[in-house]
Fold this sequence. Notes:
The N and C termini lie far apart (65 Å). Helix 1 packs across helix 2 (33-40) and helix 1 (7-26) crosses helix 6 (108-118). With 221 residues, the protein is an all-alpha fold. The protein has one domain (55-220): Orthogonal Bundle (Tetracycline Repressor, domain 2), CATH 1.10.357.10. The chain has ten helices and no strands. 74% of the residues lie in helices and 0% in strands.
Amino acid sequence: MPLAVPTASRTRERVLRAAAELFAARGFAGTSISAIRSASGALASSIYWEFGSKDGILVAVLQDAAARWLDQARACAVRATAQPGSSAAHRLRDYLDYLAGALAERPEFLRLLLLLSLERRDVDPASLRAIRQVRQHAIDMLAHLYVETGIVDATAAGSVATDLARASLAFFDGSFIAAQIDPETTDLRRMFSMLQAGITAAVPEPGDRDAVHRSIVEGRT
């Protein structure tokens, strides 16, 4: 017989799910505790007991959504690097293709991050720290992927891979915004494929990974 999920745990999940949807649709400033209570069916006293405030709910939503999104991104990386003997370009292509599909299917987290970033004056410092931590985790993961796939040589990694990861994340932001504004004509898979082509085009020969390093360093000067 399956074990019953504790009531407090179910209530927390309902509040997080309802709050995430409301924050993504209305923004932080436009979402009230009353709206979260109505959407989740939880008592106001239970919400305050569990989260303390609306800011506390936002931090919990960000932490929960970030964990899910990063797990999804890691799973994409594992799938992309699982094929033995595939080239760096093919591994990167597969990763970006998997990631584009994941973002298209579950855009809520990035939509929430972008909305909150635009509402910085209304969001408390703890929530902003959570947003920045999520983005830093994404940068670290992308930098590791570029080394793992061989796009950036391990001996020339560090700031090179990080700079490339930051540029890629900025590209993700722009592509995602375009997909929200004009979903009918914006194909995330195609746009991510163009990113992969641009990155790998910086490597003129299969063994010349230093080309990426040189192009990034020259771009700084």
